[in-house]
Amino acid sequence: QVQVVESGGGLVQSGGSLRLSCAASGKIFRNNAMAWYRQGPGKEREFVADIHSDSRINYADSVKGRFTISRDNAQNTAYLQMNNVKPEDAAVYYCNADVLSWGPLDEVVAGRYWGQGTQVTVSS
């Protein structure tokens, strides 16, 4: 019932900037939080940042001061502005949406939904 799609990945030079987008769609009536994770080659998926409906924002230490997460509640969309990108930032970036939605029988469904990921490649 809920779909999550990331976009905006691609090739960026070290020190450059990139903005990722995450759009959640479906019968959503409350968007509790949206989060970004990433998984580099040979590494475990790790937390990057999240933003909650109560305005709380969290960042991993590795990206603090360089990345900024934001959201557009009307569009159920989250963004990750990546500045001063480093080679270690190269990874597949995944978005997770924590939402309440209407199920097929008009029941309330609480769930967390993942996107397919978007690749970020960093060149020297």
DSSP, total strands:
11
Q: Whole-number average pLDDT?
A: 96
Low-confidence stretches: none
How large a portion of the residues is in β-strands, by DSSP E? over 45%
What structural class results from the helix and strand content? mainly beta
Inertia-based shape: elongated
Radius of gyration: 15 Å
Major pleated sheet? 7 strands, mixed
Helix-residue proportion? under 10%
Measured between the Cα atoms of the first and last residue, the distance is: 41 Å
Alpha plus pi helix count: 0
Output the helix-strand order: EEEEEEEEEEE
Short summary of the structure?
Helix content is 0%, strand content 63%. It is mainly β.
Defining traits:
mainly beta, 124 residues, four-stranded antiparallel sheet, 0% helix, seven-stranded mixed sheet
Q: How would you explain this protein's 3D organization?
A:
With 124 residues, the chain is mostly beta strands. The chain contains no helices and eleven strands. The chain has strands at residues 2-7, 10-13, 18-26, 28-39, 46-52, 57-59, 67-72, 77-82, 91-102, 108-114, 118-123. Strands 2, 4, 5, 6, 9, 10 and 11 form a seven-stranded mixed sheet that branches. The protein is elongated and about 50 Å long.
